[in-house]
Write a structure and sequence with these properties.
Length: 445
């Protein structure tokens, strides 16, 4: 229940700078205004209260106070602090960027309300010159040789593995049976998760130095089908499972088959395998893809230089809570990416200090950039229209295969619409910087 108060007066406001972007705002509200708030909230409760023996809104004031005293006090405090916190920020021209940490110092009938709010504020800085940022752009084009190399890679993806009656060479594939031990015991006795490293039959090992376990394939070179080899390897210090890290294993290996890699010719048959009418059509499609990749990489390089140049032109203090929140976000993303790549939890735990340090550096740059972007957007009157936000929301909903209505509701729950607005602003400002950059064409490396 929320009462509507008459105009109230803040008796005193003091502001203390706790840090460059952190302030302590102390507020004192007149006792008469506190009593007025109690009175207004009490009347609201009395109008809506339903007590036995009385029609709604007709219960005596004394009975309403007896039953709802704690609720009335809580609502009055919530409303008073909320209203006067906002008034204090407005009066002192404080731009808070995080929710306040409120400490109630004094609150009761007949007494002034005294509370303190700790808030983080936007940094104060002079916007540096952001037009004419220096950018080096490679003068690079897609060549026929680039297309040829891409076609060769496509052919390798259609690779055939033909069985041959000869000794193993580097570049072949060895089909082997193996059993591995450490100190004469199966690897699984040391690490239960090492079943795939302990024994396999018909296992394919690419004849390359770091294939399977580093050094394993090298010791099979020259073997023929039916040959037996003893292979000794040492697991690296960061190996997962950790129980095997740094240990030396001995493998009894039987070579079953030697398979030679045979890529198909680059011709119309290969083109049809990729859905093209013929080889010229495939070449044209590959060239188009390479040109798009080149354009993307050049744009990415340009934007990286622009952002780096902008960040390097000014230094200012950052809000600690915002940096801490962004650091947690970056750490979460790093851990998620490593987990998707198959990095074990043990290794991630071992590297947690390095992960946090890298995340903290990245978070500071990202927070700093966000303030610069907002200031440039305000300076240049760059905005995101409602139509642009709607189009982005619809595109994201389609990409995630979620109905638009449900997607919007999910966004609203986590303030996601504002995130999309900020993303569009960010993209527009970076485009503005690109359009106003000072380009220098340099030879391709």
């Amino acid at each position: 229940m929320i009462g509507s108060f008459n105009e109230t007066n803040i008796v005193n406001i003091t502001v203390e700078n706790l840090a460059p972007c952190k302030k302590l705002v102390r507020v004192e509200v007149d006792a008469a205004d506190v009593d007025q708030a109690f009175e207004t909230i009490t009347k609201d409760f009395q109008k809506q209260a339903s007590l036995p023996g009385f029609r709604p809104g007709k219960a005596p004031r004394a009975m309403v106070l007896k039953k709802y005293e704690a609720d009335i006090k809580a609502e009055a405090k919530r409303k008073l602090i909320g209203d006067h916190y906002r008034k204090a920020l407005e009066e002192k021209k404080i731009a808070a960027i995080t929710p306040p940490d409120i400490e109630e110092i004094q609150f009761d009938h007949g007494q002034p309300l005294i509370f303190a709010a700790t808030v983080e504020t936007a940094p104060e800085f002079e916007l540096p010159e952001y037009k004419g940022l220096a950018v080096r752009r490679e003068a690079k084009l897609v060549t026929e040789s680039d297309v040829d190399r891409a076609l060769e890679l496509l052919a390798k993806q259609q690779m055939k593995f033909e069985t041959v009656a000869r000794e193993l060479r580097m570049g072949d594939v060895a089909v082997v049976n193996f059993t591995g031990t450490v100190d004469g015991k199966p690897l699984t006795e040391l690490a239960s998760a090492a079943q795939g490293l302990t024994e396999k039959r018909g296992f394919w090992v690419e004849m390359a130095p770091n294939s399977f376990i580093a050094g394993f394939a090298d010791q099979l070179a020259g073997a023929k089908p039916g040959d037996q080899r003893t292979v000794t390897v040492t697991f690296p210090p960061d190996f997962v499972p950790a129980e095997l890290a740094g240990r030396t294993a001995v493998y009894a290996v039987e070579v079953v088959e030697v398979r030679e890699k045979v890529p198909p010719p680059v011709d119309d048959v290969l083109a049809k395998a990729y859905g093209a009418a013929d080889l010229p059509a495939l070449r044209a499609g590959v060239r188009h893809d390479l040109e798009n990749e080149l354009k993307y990489s050049q744009e990415k390089a340009v934007r990286g230089q622009l952002i780096g140049g902008l960040l390097g032109r000014v230094n200012f203090d950052l809000p600690e809570a915002v940096v801490a929140q962004e650091t947690r976000h970056v750490v979460y993303n790093i851990v998620q990416e490593n987990t998707k790549r198959g990095v074990g939890r043990e290794l991630i735990e071992q590297q947690k200090e390095e992960i946090y340090s890298a995340a903290a550096r990245s978070a500071k740059d990202r927070v700093k950039l966000s303030f610069l972007i907002r200031r440039i957007a305000a300076q240049e009157k760059i905005q995101a229209t409602q139509e642009e936000v709607v189009r982005r929301v619809e595109a994201l909903a389609q990409a995630y295969q979620i109905p638009v209505e449900k997607f919007i509701k999910d966004l609203q729950k986590r303030d996601g619409v504002n995130e999309i607005y900020e993303q569009i602003i960010h993209e527009k400002v970076v485009q503005f910087l690109e359009q106003n950059a000072a380009y220098e064409e340099v030879p391709a490396r």
